[in-house]
Amino acid sequence: MLPYFFLSKQLPDALIPTIPGPEMPLACLTDFQAFARERLPKSTWDFIEGGADDSFTRDDNIAAFKRKLFVAEHRIRLRPRYLKNVVNVDTRTTIQGEEITAPICISPTGFHCLVWPDGEMSTARAAQAAGVCYITSTFATCALEDIAATAPRGLRWFQLYVHPDRQLSKQLVQRVESLGFKALVITVDVPKLGNRRHDIRNQLDLKLNLLLKDLHSPKEIDALAEVVAAVKGTMEVYLDGGIRTGNDVLKALALGAKCVFLGRPILWGLAYKGEDGVKELLNIIKNEFHTSMALTGCQSVAEINQDMIQFSRL
């Protein structure tokens, strides 16, 4: 049988938290972040939030989507449109021909059992309930068979680190295909693993130097515009990294993305209440996106285009 990563029983007990229930409802994604920071062990939190070296790619991606979003030295704002019929705003769209309830899906991140006991199985069930795609990581801490079985109707893609042993990679691809995963997401930007300083200081060694996919460029939002221009409509373009609000989602789509993917925020939701926490987090950002569509006069995702945003020089 092909070996696979199944690490939940190998995790140090100190890394698996007992999380008490929250005292108040959470209103936005950064509330989930604050909750997770408070409740998770320091080494686990550092593993989730840390990046390689100075973490400038992570920080730039987040800063680019804060209130002042910049592209090529321009500030980007939503352009409000009034007296439009937005009674029936529809956030549904498709990716690779499959319908999803909103263009907000789940990026591949590893080691979900660090933040919730049944890890990726909770994430998969939440994605199925929300009607969005979940990209399962090569470094999942639950068996792929269990992930597929717990959410049999969910849209699943698989993130693949191509192994030097091509036969091993081929067998893994065949395995996930047999389990109903619909697409491969191949990581191509890791010629060498990054230097994760927090993990070194915490003496945390899980044989993984990247928790989240990173596009190593000046800001992913800058790279988005360049990639959209380069492919000229011949393929769908997706963005992950830095998305924290529904406004961020609409801006990314207006600049040409077909869909955005959430990484760290999903782990925050998982740390909050497992499956229910991820569902709640997704519901919040989907509602924010719905509001942004209404305020820009969009009834459907297909209507979102660059006219929905305005540029002003710094």
UniProtKB/TrEMBL annotation:
Superkingdom to which the source organism belongs: Eukaryota
InterPro entries, A to Z: Aldolase_TIM, Alpha-hydoxy_acid_DH_FMN, FMN-dep_DH, FMN_HAD
Requisite cofactors: FMN
Keyword Membrane: no
Keyword Oxidoreductase in annotation: yes
Transmembrane regions: none
Occurrences of domain FMN hydroxy acid dehydrogenase (ranges): 21-314
Signal peptide (UniProt feature, chain positions): none
Keywords: Oxidoreductase
Stated family: Belongs to the FMN-dependent alpha-hydroxy acid dehydrogenase family.
UniProt-recorded name of the protein: 2-Hydroxyacid oxidase 2 isoform X4
Phylogenetic placement of the source organism: Eukaryota, Metazoa, Chordata, Craniata, Vertebrata
